[in-house]
Amino acid sequence: MKRTGLNSELTQTNASSSNNKRLKTEHSSENSSRIESSSTSLNPNNNNNPQNSTTCEDQSIKTSKQSIARFFFENGLDFESINSPSFHTMMGPANCQIPTLDELKGPLFKDALKETNEYFNEARNSWVHTGCTILLDEWKGQTGRDLVNVLVDSPRGTVYLSSYDISDFVGKNDEMKIFFEKVLNEVGIDNVVQVITSSSSVFTKEVGKELSEKYRQIFWSVSGSCCMQLMLEKLIEMDVIKETLEKAKTITRFIYGNPDTLKHLKEKTEGRDLFQQSSKIKSTQPFLTLENIVLEKKTLTKMFLSPLFLMNEGWEKVADLVGDESFWKAASNVLKAAIPLVRVIEWMKGCNNKEQMGYIYETMDQAKEAIKEGFKRNKAQYTRFWKEIDEVWTGVLYSPIHAAGYYLNPKLFYSSDMFIDPEVATGLLCCVVRTTRDPRVQDRVTVQIEMYQNAKGAFGLGWAEEHRSNISPAKWWSKYGVECPDLQKLATRILSQTCEGASKFQLRRSSVEKLLDTRISRREKNTLADAVFVEYNMQLQNFGSGKVGCTGSDEIEPLDDWIADQGRNDGAASNTTDQGALNSGGQSDFHPKVEPA
């Protein structure tokens, strides 16, 4: 069967679409800004001039209109909503500053598109120096089609590149490789350090392996937090944990099924809830809820010893459970095994953890050691949990680049407890060989590694020693690695990468699903492509700056089977956590290392 070209089979939109239109837009916007600048620069020192007062008022209105427009653009709202009477009522006295529909579709959108292009290009220009990571955000659309967003992450920021309908290529390795090569070429093959997918990716390991063999400098990995959640899901399936969680549900079902009991608990705990439902992280809520139950052990024990709730159905069963020390011991053991992984997920999901590559290897080792110490080094107790964790770490997540990042992180390398095991040494060597094919460069890197190992030259200067811990590893190499340019380039590119996937950003997908609908016209598709480009990149820019944004399509769901008995649905993990439970310390003192600014 003759295979047609990728362009004819693949429905796609990307950041480079409508480039000519965007160039014209930028050009006209620049001309407009020059004209405006000329008109407002007259008599700049005459503060009493009525024209200056009018100009300030005009600027205030312009800023207000731009803010309202940005609200529409970054949330993917229908522009026609600007004419809604309810919207005008909501705006109140600011009605006069609401942009018209023509302004929203015209100059205001053109300005936003220009600004977004500038943000995108700033990030793109940095990739040649720091390298970048391609993040693949895959999902099934409302119509059952396989869709994917392509994001590109670097220290300068994460940007949205393109969206594809890949339904026709799922399970077809040759077609998938063609798709990936198209994406790699769009980003720039020499810029790409790694590709990160989700744990349930339609992009098979075979495709990743074949592409890694062809493009040896590119590493293939899976979202770190997705792998941590997979570890938790494997723990939930263990009988000892499943049984304990089911018993804990007996307590919450009774409390939340009896308003008087719930009211009493809230009074005794100053309003604290046993459930944690303020963020969107799957698989952690059962363990955080159990953690809160353990933290409130004294309150719960005292409460169920009280005769206040004797008449409530089920009280006796719960009272017996709360008074059973074996339950509390089992709950404590569950938390010793699970909470270290919950901490890792929170660390990886944090907005400010940009350069994770230098810490992921050590952080996983810390988590395992925390589990080991929690069980007082009793091998018979902790190894069963290690086994489940290692299956995911070695079989899904680990890549040589993780070990190399550990080795090249000066904060860890020069620490007193640094340990170079064969896996670390092999990982570093693998990265050197795969990223630098020239034997002469490899020889120079080997010599430069010895300088780094022995802290010679600039590596041993007072400032270099002082900054090992208080600046990011990549910045440290840019400052103090100048005498070892080949190793400096390798270290900077590795340490500048993330270990987290696209799910962290929780981008809304409805706009892309409409964009990839084959029934819309080409003109509508081009217009919508620009709108999605602006929407996603504004959301990503908000996320990168720490602003509230990126409200995902996955709604927060309560742990229904923890509130009411809905049959045997053990291990059904919800998707939310709460910082309060994490910060409380719980049953583990483990906290991953924080990346310096």
Description:
There is one protein chain. This protein has 597 residues and is α/β, with parallel strands linked by helices. Helices cover 58% and strands 7% of the residues. The protein contains 28 helices and 6 strands. It has helices at 6-9, 19-40, 50-74, 85-91, 101-105, 107-130, 173-187, 205-214, 224-236, 239-257, 259-268, 285-295, 297-305, 315-322, 325-349, 360-374, 379-397, 400-408, 410-413, 422-435, 439-453, 462-466, 473-480, 485-495, 510-515, 522-544, 560-563, 579-583, and strands at 11-14, 132-140, 146-154, 157-165, 192-197, 219-222. It has a 6-stranded mixed beta sheet with strand order 1-4-3-2-5-6. The longest helix is centred in the N-terminal third of the chain and has 25 residues, at 50-74. The protein is globular, with a radius of gyration of 28 Å.
Secondary structure layout plus pairing:
Layout: H1 6-9, E1 11-14, H2 19-40, H3 50-74, H4 85-91, H5 101-105, H6 107-130, E2 132-140, E3 146-154, E4 157-165, H7 173-187, E5 192-197, H8 205-214, E6 219-222, H9 224-236, H10 239-257, H11 259-268, H12 285-295, H13 297-305, H14 315-322, H15 325-349, H16 360-374, H17 379-397, H18 400-408, H19 410-413, H20 422-435, H21 439-453, H22 462-466, H23 473-480, H24 485-495, H25 510-515, H26 522-544, H27 560-563, H28 579-583
Strand content: 5-15%
Main-sheet strand order equals 1-4-3-2-5-6
Q: What share of residues is helical?
A: 55-70%
Average pLDDT taken over every residue: 81
* Unreliable stretches covering 5 or more consecutive residues: 1-11, 15-47, 549-556, 567-590
How big is the Rg? 28 Å
Biggest sheet character: 6 strands, mixed
- Can you count the beta strands? 6
User: What is the overall silhouette?
Assistant: globular
Q: What structural category arises from helix and sheet content?
A: alpha/beta
| Annotation field: number of helices | 28
Task: For the record, give the distance between the C-alpha atoms at the N and C termini, rounded to a whole number.
Answer: 55 Å
